[in-house]
Amino acid sequence: MPLKLVYHNHYDLHFGAHVFPSQKYRLICETLLREKFAAAEDFLVPEPAADEDVLRVHTADWVRKLKTGTLTLSEITKLEVPYSREMVEAVWLAAGGTILAARHALADGIAVNVGGGFHHAFPGHGEGFCAIHDIAVAVRRVQADGAVRKAMVVDTDVHQGNGTAAIFSDDPSVFTFSIHQEHNYPDPKPPSTVDLHLPDGVGDEEYLRTLSAPLREALDEFRPDVVFYVGGADPYHEDMLGGLALSLAGLARRDRLVFEEARKRGIPVAVTLAGGYARSIDDTVKIHVNTILAARDVMGAYPRQRQSSGGNQDAPGKTGQPASGVQ
Ligand SMILES: [Zn+2]
Predict the structure, then answer these.
(1) How high is the pLDDT of residue 324?
(2) For residue 303, what pLDDT is reported?
(3) What is the model's pLDDT at position 306?
(4) Which residue of 101, 159, 306, 321 lies most exposed, with the fewest beta carbons within 10 A?
């Protein structure tokens, strides 16, 4: 693999019999190894995010409640997942994983966290299976490192990235882009910088047509130093929580489009996986594996270019750490 895969054995969220198949992370890695798409040395094991990193995004109160197991009943109901120590450990690891993937993306061009994508978490509460927002934590961390100035989140999960939109609503250094099913959770949808609201039942061609021009425009106008790609598997036609109708091939074309447009512009991409609730877990695993293979193929097809305007020179809060600094 020309790219690093970040994974920890404790990514499993231990939801038990739940619509969220939290064993999928392990199955994705096993598939990559079994099919010889990846070797053991392609994998990196993350540390949990530091509380200091999590607190750049989340309130001290929410962090304390998660760590001490003192969520109220209504907070657990909103989260829609059972509370456990394992779940808290898993989401701290996922945030550390997205930080590590971001750093390797900056060094290598693309890197994948085989986990994360918890885009429904808000600063002071969790919802929609998402307790802390790993992507926002990673954005804030690489900005604090001085490694990037401007970041873009490109979210193709079938559900709008409401946490992302809310966290960065007043922050001109982060562009939030979401393409999702309009008549689905969440409701309301706090506005992203760009929201592409799709009607029910949209298939491959209409989806790709809707995505491509606004994505190119956003990249050209904003010129981010890094893209965080939230590659949800749930726009799939067999998804139990989604109402779009993309095929496996259409989802792979979607991934390739995002990687190509960023790569052509010399913009590094840090990938997270997000939702996937296909009737068959094999399909969910296949969609996520295909995302990783699309990243690999695009890296091969488009040799890396230097970006014309990096974020290093004039980044506020620069700490002098190199962009490629890896824990
Ligand atoms: Zn989703």
Answers:
(1) 39
(2) 84
(3) 54
(4) 306
- Residue 88 · residue 97 · CB < 8 Å: no
Q: What is the 272 CA–ligand 1 centroid distance (Å)?
A: 12
Q: Report the separation in Å between the CA atom of 18 and the middle of ligand 1, taken as the mean of its atom positions.
A: 14
Distance 250 CA to ligand 1 centre (A): 17
The token pair that represents 45 in the structure block: 């094991």
d(CA 236, CA 158): 9
Q: How far is the CA of 277 from the centre of ligand 1 (A)?
A: 8
**Which residue is associated with the tokens 């061009």?**
109
Give residue 159 CA to ligand 1 midpoint distance, Å. 4
- Burial zone of 50 (CB within 10 Å; 0-12 exposed, 13-18 middle, 19+ buried): middle
Structure-derived torsion over alpha carbons of residues 321, 114, 268, 303, reported in degrees to the nearest 10:
120
Distance, CA 167 to ligand 1 centroid (Å)?
18
Both tokens of residue 41?
């040395």
pLDDT score at 307: 52
Q: How far apart are CA 159 and CA 303, in angstroms?
A: 33
**Which segments in the chain show pLDDT lower than 70?**
305-327
- Give the whole-angstrom CA distance, residue 21 versus residue 167: 27
Q: Write the CA distances from 39 to 3, 5, 32, 159, 287, integer angstroms.
A: 11, 10, 8, 33, 20
